[in-house]
Design brief:
Elements lengths: L11 E5 L4 H12 L3 E6 L2 H11 L4 E4 L5 H15 L4 E4 L15 H29 L2 E6 L12 H21 L4 E6 L3 E2 L15 E2 L1 H13 L4 E2 L3 H12 L2 H11 L10 H11 L15
Parallel strand pairs: 1-2, 1-4, 2-3, 4-5, 5-6, 6-9, 7-8
Helix pairs in contact: 1-6, 3-4, 4-5
């Protein structure tokens, strides 16, 4: 771990899903740090508006994270306009709260896998070689508390975030000693559109997107493996590792934490889920490969 705080002024960052929620808050925090930012998204009208709001040379670029060729074009154009990449934040993700896993529509399952898993894989494959060539840089993967604990009515989402947690840990081992840092971010419920319709649950506190952004900036200044945002999430992870599973699960039942997705208001989530369902092309095929 670094002993001194790294000066981020003048660094170049690319953020996927940078038009809303955590991505937008992170972009704003980066701008305040003097980082040059590119935000990627499918809705270019919104992306351009956000880039203009952020100012300080922030650029908006089209991006389909489930398409590797689109990810390559996004990073290429970022570097063409802003300079060599220093930071890549894989933030784009969707969460569909639905029926039990066996009743989930195949397209809904594929949609979440495309965005939440392939979107990060594509980014890693396209970003890491650039950073390795310069022996510096930082990859930040946004996972979730659902990547540490499985929740009813969110099997595919939880599974996809478990993948990101494991992938980030493995990637960190592969890159040890190269000068390229890797951080996994595992927030709980964040007050964004993705979490719309969630009702208060004992033992589960809601955090703001700005809290997550602050944690990311702190990890860039002094690299760390994981950012949990709230202390109780870190304690939960430790409890999961140390306690017998039946004891740990009993604790979760006592706080009703594992049922946090059962009580969502579907009407309050309708607008978000309609848009999320069309965020990326669902398929069971591997992502597009570049020549």
């Amino acid at each position: 771990m670094a002993t001194r705080s790294t000066d981020l002024t003048g660094c170049v960052a690319a953020i996927t899903g940078g038009t809303r929620g955590i991505g937008k808050a992170t972009a704003a925090a980066f701008v305040r740090e003097g980082i040059r930012v590119a935000i990627g998204g499918r809705d270019m009208e919104t992306a351009q508006r956000v880039a203009k709001e952020l100012g300080h040379g922030t650029i908006a670029l089209p991006l389909e994270t489930s398409d590797r060729a689109s990810v390559k074009a996004f990073l290429d154009e970022t570097e063409r306009q802003l300079g060599p990449l220093d930071i890549v934040v894989h933030n784009a993700g969707i969460m569909i709260v639905g029926p039990p896993a066996w009743d989930e529509d195949d397209r809904t399952t594929a949609r979440q896998i495309d965005v939440n898993i392939y979107g990060v894989i594509n980014g890693v494959k396209e970003a890491v070689p650039r950073l390795l060539s310069r022996k510096r840089g930082h990859i930040v993967n946004i996972a979730s508390g659902a990547g540490k604990i499985g929740f009813a009515r969110g099997v595919t989402y939880s599974g996809s975030k478990h993948f990101i947690v494991g992938m980030t840990e493995s990637l960190r081992s592969e890159l040890r000693g190269t000068g390229v840092e890797v951080t996994c971010v595992t927030p709980g419920i964040v007050n964004t559109e993705l979490a719309s319709g969630h009702r208060p649950t004992r033992g589960v506190r809601v955090v703001e997107a700005e809290d997550v952004a602050k944690g990311i900036v702190a990890a860039l200044r002094r690299p760390r493996a994981e950012v949990s945002v709230r202390a109780e999430l870190s304690l939960t992870s430790r409890a999961r590792a140390l306690l017998p599973y039946n004891v740990f699960e009993a604790l979760l039942r006592a706080t009703n934490a594992k049922n946090v997705m059962r009580g969502v208001d579907p009407d309050a989530r309708a607008a978000y889920e309609t848009r999320a369902q069309h965020q990326a092309p669902a398929s069971n095929e591997p992502p597009t490969k570049t020549p």
